[in-house]
Amino acid sequence: MTDVDGVVARLVAELGDRVLVDAPFGEHTTYRVGGRAAAMVVVDDHESLSRVASTLAGTGVPVMTIGRGSNLLIADRGFPGVIVHLAGDYAGIAVVDETVVIAGAAAKLPVVARTTVGYGLSGFEWAVGVPGSIGGAVRMNAGGHGAEMVDSLLDADVVDLRLGERTIVPAADLDLRYRHSNLTADHLVVGCRLGLTPGDERKGQEVMAEIVQWRRANQPGGQNAGSVFTNPADASAGELIESAGGKGLRVGSAEVSAKHANFIQADEGGVAADVLQVMIEVRMLVEYAHGIVLQPETHLVGFTDDEMPWRS
Ligand code: FAD
């Protein structure tokens, strides 16, 4: 029995049917391609989370958290470890102290946006069109429409799955930059506190309606993970890809979106290898045409270093 099998067996003994063995990881992402994980544990309360953390601590078994899977590409071979998915208690949202909001990591960003506007608060409207969770947004420093998590994040409640330790980390210590934090796969965000400002509910509703309309007009639906590459300084990755002739580029079951060149659409029943190959070819096109090397925003999981021209 390998380490992974032993740890999965212990998790099953501890948490029963909340552990899905040989879980279809790729299906839980918005690309809906990619392979399986050794196990997926659905954690919906603190007691279960402590058990998961103490079972994993010190084992060396690969582990990571999945939120809404809207920024992930999973290799077709899958992930030889345990994925943790927060649900239940972790989807809560509460206003404390008038302008401070506590949001659980599993809370959906559009729900947090609408709820905070409904409470007469401003500062989180931007998130109405981002299909991720609070946990994923903290890890990614997600943002859009001129705002990002760092603008309102006060602190995050983080569990180190290797050490089993839980800490409140001030936002200033998370090294939040454009689509970056210093959190790693070992760090699970349990929730966070957001500092917002008093606002006008009707104005907030209008701002969100405009954002939703803009997204419908400018971004494709279907199987994708949003922006594939980060924008280089003073440039738009989408515009660079389009002017390099990348729009419509297809490899097997994956294609650069005709609606937005920084999105890749995967076909139903497609494979992650094709998405990766489109990424590689687009990157080459842009480097050749503009001398700019694009960096992925999407987190790639389960690929080897030899398969990717960038570091994971
Ligand atoms: P996942 O995709 O599940 O995970 C992303 C990363 O975060 C992984 O490394 C994962 O391990 C980690 N993670 C997830 N949950 C936790 C947790 N609780 N604790 C610790 N780490 C965790 N992003 C933007 O920033 N701006 C946009 O405007 C935007 N638009 C998008 C539009 C579309 C149509 C799509 C499909 C995606 C878009 N995205 C955008 C990307 C994505 O929604 C964000 O990056 C989002 O923050 C990811 O959240 P998630 O819960 O889906 O994370």
Tell me what you see in this structure.
This protein is an alpha+beta fold and 312 residues long. The chain folds into three domains: 4-86, 2-Layer Sandwich (Uridine Diphospho-n-acetylenolpyruvylglucosamine Reductase, domain 2), CATH 3.30.43.10; 89-217, Uridine Diphospho-n-acetylenolpyruvylglucosamine Reductase, domain 3 (2-Layer Sandwich); 220-311, UDP-N-acetylenolpyruvoylglucosamine reductase, C-terminal domain (Uridine Diphospho-n-acetylenolpyruvylglucosamine Reductase, domain 1, Alpha-Beta Complex), CATH 3.90.78.10. Helices cover 27% and strands 25% of the residues. The protein has helices at 3-15, 46-56, 109-118, 134-140, 201-218, 237-243, 272-290; strands spanning 19-23, 37-43, 63-66, 72-74, 79-86, 93-96, 100-104, 121-122, 143-144, 147-148, 153-160, 165-170, 187-195, 197-198, 250-251, 254-256, 264-266, 299-301. A five-stranded antiparallel sheet has the order 6-7-13-11-12, covered by helices on one side. A four-stranded mixed sheet has the order 1-2-5-3, with helices on one face. Helix 1 (3-15) packs antiparallel against helix 2 (46-56) and helix 3 (109-118) runs antiparallel to helix 5 (201-218). The protein starts with a helix and ends in an 11-residue tail after the last strand. The mean pLDDT is 96. Bound molecules: flavin-adenine dinucleotide. Residues 30, 64-72, 86, 105, 130-133, 135-137, 139-140, 142-144, 183, 185, 187-189, 219, 224-226, 299 line the site of flavin-adenine dinucleotide (FAD).
